[in-house]
Amino acid sequence: MKTTKYIGGFILAGLLPAFVACDKIKDGDRLIDQGVVEIKSERCVLLEDYTGVRCVNCPDAAATTKLLQATYGNNLIVVALHPQGFPTLTMPYDEDQDLSTAIARTYYDAFQISSLPQGMVNRKKVLPYLAWGGAIQEVFDDTSTDYVNLVASAKLSGTNMQVNINGNFKQDYSAEGDINVIAMVVENNITTQQNSHEGRIKEYVHNHVLRTVISDDVWGDKILDAHPSEGADFTKQYTATLNEAWKTQDLALVVAVVNARSREVLQAAYAHFK
């Protein structure tokens, strides 16, 4: 149950100013060309944490996530989603940058999440954070649902990112629903103010923050018809331009293969951009 990543570096820069304000960036902080990243994964689980900077319980959920990552290592992939439009929970303090996105709100509404913090393990069902560990272990224990081999590579020339995704099914997949792929960009090491049980934390570090989805559709793009057989291959390419306010050293690519009908995640992969 080990995820192997072959990382030769990355090349990145500027996309979707609607998600992040484009302030003046120092030359030393700009995204730079750094080579190629390649991901090769075995079984991985995707944990999505719905959170907010004004949510007093959300730091506890983040601490739980950190412990789970220490346990599962690279086989646990985390995305933190700050749903847009919640003044009491996700609106930034003072002059802090806004971590919320319309994409996170789309997912929040579709999955009928009722409060923060809550999360989903492989998008099966909505769970309180104290139940995340058990749900993650259930996925790893059920080897019969280990369906997908997944490889992704990414490169940026100037401001244009290119992502190549390919893989195949290890066994027949009988569930209804076409097979989609979703490609997301997340950012680590973002410092803002954060509410907590002890009051407002002035310098709180956020990780795994969803910045954007580079798939054509936020629910993913079709790569295979329903009921793929063992050995069925898939491939998908994307191009995107990333916002220059996002630093190369703090960005990561998350790729998920999903059932388009149930929206369940069948496999995921992660690579830090270096």
Summarize this entry quickly.
The protein is mainly β.
3D architecture notes:
With 274 residues, this protein is mainly beta. The protein has one domain: Immunoglobulins (Immunoglobulin-like), CATH 2.60.40.10. 12% of the residues lie in helices and 38% in strands. The chain contains three helices and 16 strands. It has a five-stranded antiparallel sheet, with no helix packed on it. Strands 9, 12, 13, 15 and 16 form a five-stranded antiparallel sheet that branches. The longest helix is centred in the N-terminal third of the chain and has 15 residues, at 58-72. The protein is globular. The protein starts with a strand and ends with a strand.
Number of helices: 3
**DSSP, total strands:** 16
Uncertain segments of ≥5 residues (pLDDT<50)? 1-35
Helix content: 10-25%
Determine the mean pLDDT. Answer: 85
**Rough shape?**
globular
What is the annotated CATH architecture? Sandwich
Largest sheet: 5 strands, antiparallel
Annotated CATH homologous superfamily: Immunoglobulins
Using only C-alpha atoms, the radius of gyration works out to: 18 Å
CATH class: Mainly Beta
H-E order: EEEHEHEEHEEEEEEEEEE
CATH third-tier fold name: Immunoglobulin-like
List keywords for this structure.
globular, Immunoglobulin-like, 5-stranded antiparallel beta sheet, 38% strand, 274 residues
What layout of secondary structure does this protein have?
Layout: E1 4-7, E2 36-41, E3 45-50, H1 58-72, E4 76-81, H2 102-110, E5 118-121, E6 126-127, H3 132-141, E7 148-157, E8 160-169, E9 179-187, E10 190-194, E11 201-206, E12 209-213, E13 221-224, E14 233-241, E15 251-259, E16 265-272
Parallel strand pairs: 3-4
Antiparallel strand pairs: 1-2, 2-7, 3-5, 5-6, 7-8, 8-14, 9-12, 9-13, 9-15, 10-11, 15-16
